[in-house]
Amino acid sequence: MRNYLLFFLIFILTFSCSENSNQINYKENLTAYLLKNYSNLKVDTKIEHITLTNANWTNEFYANTNHSPIWISDSLELNKNAYDFINLLCSSYNYGLDTSYYFGNSLKILSKKLMAIPNKEDRYAVAADLEILLTNSYFLFAKDINYGIVPSDSTKLASETPRKNFEINLPEYLFISSKKNNITTMLLKLQPQHQEYINLQKQLEKYLKTASISKEKIKVEPFKLDSIKSYGQSKKALILHNYLAEQSTDSSYFAALKLFQLKHGLSPDGLIGTNTANALSKSPYDDYKQAVLSLEKWRWKKDWGADYIFVNIPSYQLKIYQKNNLKKTFKVVVGKPDNPTPEINDEMEYLIIYPFWNVPYSISSKELLPKIKKDSTYLTRNNYQVFTNKNKPINTSKIDWAIISENNLKYSIRQNSGSDNSLGLIKFVFPNKHSIYIHDTPSKGFFMNDIRAYSHGCIRVQQPFLLADLLLSNDNNKYNIDSLHVFVDSKTQKRIKLNKHIPIYIEYFTCGTDTNNNLVFYKDIYGLDKKLEDLMQLKHHSKPTNSPELVNK
Length: 553
What we know:
The protein is an alpha+beta fold. It has 18 helices and 17 strands. Helices cover about 40% and strands about 15% of the residues.
């Protein structure tokens, strides 16, 4: 009996090994097919109407893998990495990227075509096409999500600050990701690591789950022009923007209006003023575009380190980060549209307590001179002093102002230190070619307004001594907030150097997040978004839709 069982076992094992030896190794055959047909791709090569714009990277990658596929399984089907990646491409609008750029729908169609071929030995051609197209789309998406879609030589048309260099070896990065069998997760790690970017992207994804992205617009008039018409128009606009249901009460209307105001950087007063009416008159797609443009600009930015000051011009906010944590947000006043605050990347070097103000020639000749001519006491009353071109003070009563014009003012004007000085009691200096700085102001009332664009370009900050305290405390400086008040009380001008120069980034983003991580859309006060929109060709941007996922069955 024992011999019979042994004979039977040997027979089964022998038959099994014989069967296995006859099995087809589909992956080896696909590798051979790829090597034969796709070993030297050209930049104008087309597969399924798609041009391989990243043929060079694709060639480099498959040279490293010996043309072994990474998206196709041993049974000539899409593997999990492929399914995950195609679904990511089809939801790329969550990252502010147009789904049509990456051929996600074409890849879906091709994957269904692959699975519809019953005989696996007939799948090699379609499987190879899918393999190459997936890799090409990977390189497209990977570069865009890290570096942005606007060509590097065009960014200067939309931003004054320098763009980072693209330094990632994508073929190598994909090779490592495929070895770890975690391609999509590692791909998303290529996104900028700025906390502001991370917050914006996450909130955009959340926002798109419920938001309307319609291009329809409803013109809303301010309530002062026609309160009844304004109410009706604003209600329709709130419904369009998905803040209000069709059937709603007055209380829900006002709650929706206030929420809309908060999410558009406006005071939630429930009144339809000019700024609220303008925001309501935009289409929901216009809001979405602001998020797209802001994400694009974040992808241009270098790493800012752990400690820095960030001023976002359209939000009228200054944020101070220490050890990558947001310590405090300050309200600021920025330049008027005809005197815009420029984008600047620099380092704050010192503070000046009890500063005087050297009035720029453009201001003294265009704004002060008419006031001086009209009122002989203007200079004295406002604590101004006049100097010759050799920087010597001159008695203003000896000047014949009547013969002086905007074009021949040969004097310089300085406003002396004091609480009424236009710079207030403290000035934060980061030397730059624009002569822009941050300072206190005696005009505190401007901080109560939603749109705070009133200066000649410099940045006025609310609570300047709190800002100084945070900077000095983190600087291990010998001076502290008490020292500053001593200098002010004694009316002593003092320059305080910082031990560590603090990076300061003055930028222009019309979409961001608030302290509660709500998505907020800001008014494009300088009209800069249009330039970037043209560069990104957003007029051709496909409308985001919740397309069904490709399911791995």
